[in-house]
Amino acid sequence: MAAKTLGCLIFDVIERVPEIKNGENTKRGLGIQLKNEITFDNVTFKYPTALPEHKPVLENASFRIKAGSTTAIVGPSGSGKSTIIQLIERFYDPREGGRVCFDSTNIRDVDLKDLREQIGYVSQEPIMIMGTIRDNLLFGDRDASERDCREALERANANFVFEQENGMDTFVGTSGIMNMSGGQKQRIAIARALIKRPKILILDEATSALDPKSEVEVQNAIDAIAQSGEKLTIIMIAHRLTTIASADNLLYFKSRS
Prior knowledge:
Strand order of the largest sheet: 6-7-8-3-9
Helix content: 25-40%
Structural class: alpha/beta
Distance between the termini: 39 Å
Low-confidence stretches: none
Number of strands: 9
């Protein structure tokens, strides 16, 4: 069989029907009303690609994350930490059993657009697009104003941007490598996540790849956000004690392998 052309592959992606989509009971607006808690109720989960003999990644997992709290998720590789995050973002559904709820509303009944617009995500290795710092911020919210951008940078402890000759119009280069440390890139990534004013901020090992000085700078930003008085629910996958120490709650998952 001849290999597909690039054009055919692109159309395959465009025409693909996602398995995760809104259902008949979906109600708009629920994704912006996280007032009480995120609940995992007896969730059992196995990835669709897993073989029948593989154990579930999660089995009868039950816990609550209170709105406005900071929760650290810890455990060895393969214990399900990243799976928790992907279920909250609804990249997967727990088809094997249980449910994930926002304020007692099943996440399957929350409009996907509403849900994901209210989740800010920062990965271990932040991805910077080629362009200016402003371009990278607006990738989080294309409609953000100048004031929105400045406030997001201030909240992320990224005031170093204002010390640059061109400020937010400073060109960051490919992958943000031009004159930027890992800690600086990470703080811009946090600002990009905050600019849309999410209800949930997910930090996926956001400080684990940084040197000690950069880690302190980013951790100070996270601590300031957590203590700002806003009802922002922060969920952190963490390995370092400095990250765990700032959390209100700790969830430990052990490996099932």
